[in-house]
What we know:
- The chain has 3 domains: about 5-100, Udp-n-acetylmuramoylalanyl-d-glutamate--2,6- Diaminopimelate Ligase, Chain: A, domain 1, CATH 3.40.1390.10; about 100-320, Mur-like, catalytic domain (UDP-N-acetylmuramoyl-L-alanine:D-glutamate ligase, 3-Layer(aba) Sandwich), CATH 3.40.1190.10; about 330-480, Alpha-Beta Complex (Protein-Tyrosine Phosphatase, Chain A).
- About 30% of the residues lie in helices and about 25% in strands.
- It contains 16 helices and 26 strands.
- The longest helix has 16 residues, at about 295-310.
Amino acid sequence: MIKKWIELTPSEGILQTIGDTGVEVTGITFDSRQVGAGYIFVAQKGTHTDGHQYIQLAIDKGASVIICEETPEILDNKVLYVQAKDASETLGHLASAWYDHPSERLKVVGVTGTNGKTSIATLSYHLFTSLGYKVGLISTISTIVASKVETATHTTPDALKIQRLMADMTDAGCEYCFMEVSSHAVVQKRIAGIRFAGGIFTNLTHDHLDYHKTFADYLAAKKAFFDGLAPDAFAITNIDDRNGRVMTQNCKAMIITNSTRSMADFRCKVLESHFDGMLLNMDGQEVWTHFVGKFNASNLLAVYTTAIQLGQKTEEILPVISQLTPVAGRFDTVRSLDGKMAIVDYAHTPDALKNVLQAISEIRTGNEKVITVIGAGGDRDKTKRPEMTREALNGSDLVVLTSDNPRTEDPEAIIKDMEAGIEKASANKVLSITNRKEAIKTALNLANSGDIILVAGKGHENYQEINGVKHHFDDKEIITEFFGLA
Length: 486
């Protein structure tokens, strides 16, 4: 593909241009290693490195356009230099133009919040697929173009990849795209250049403070997504969360409220709860679902509300919702032959863990023990570690602290941080076992028939990352083998 710079030039955010604006372009990249002849090189100021230091290398490799926030002192007269107010935002708009603005040919719905993003985006994908549409998905677990699945590496990919995926979706005849929008993606402008048909807010709880530093900054990152929605878009917000209304302050889009507890535009109530599902009153209609817990009722309400905003009918939506099944690693149950119930869940924040344990509490008869296996990720927000332990203790009879993905940290040091959340009165309810496989097996061994074992934190992940190396590790696989079901 070859395009002229003037075909790609963003309408705003450009401070000055130096050089021939009639230059032809053969590609775009922010990675100097991928530069080819005729490329645009975007010098981003990243978290760990500054792309400006690679400008000369990019020119040596044939770059014909340099996007930068600071113009080099020495200029090459064969190169077009474009000084941008924000190189990352400019990259998003350039990528959109390079792929002929695919989000303008799709109805793109973004889902943001601490918990529930993957479930809502994925279930929306399955709902619309079941209704006969070709649909795209960009999520933590996978990206899907129509029915072609690709394993994901980030919750929200970089701007170039997003636009490429959306272009692939339009080429495949997709009408809709559901995508997770992480707070990192908003701050790093990865969603710049995307025209959203709508946005969904799930909830906001303690997470990612290693990156955002303060809760206020984390909230501001999420809110920026809604601030950027167009007047003809919709904004669905969960007002059961105390920040639900904050998210849509100053939002230009049509605001729609959801609740499982109070008056709202769309409501959902749990009528019955069992380990194999729950009966809901969804917008005045009863529907049986294969999901458990009020947090899942809230997720399903978001899926339903989104479908209504996209023109679908209640009588067509609810039968499909009754057939939907949980996303991999989300309240994923395994029952042993002798009556033990194991649950694998991705809960890796204090609030998510609290929600899962609350869902278990609502279903249990009171005679069963609840044993929770939980760790915390390395190189991530340390302040939530003792909180994870406190939430686990609040909802469990026994807690086994163990490794999650230690990454470059010492797993025993992570567990020490978690142990700070143990009160003296609860000390006899806690075991610390560094080896995750041994921790899971110990919990399963300690359980009796009827007891419930929650293995939380990793969910769908089939690896454990230790010192930068990913080793095969699957919580559900270990449980299934222990139960003799493999």
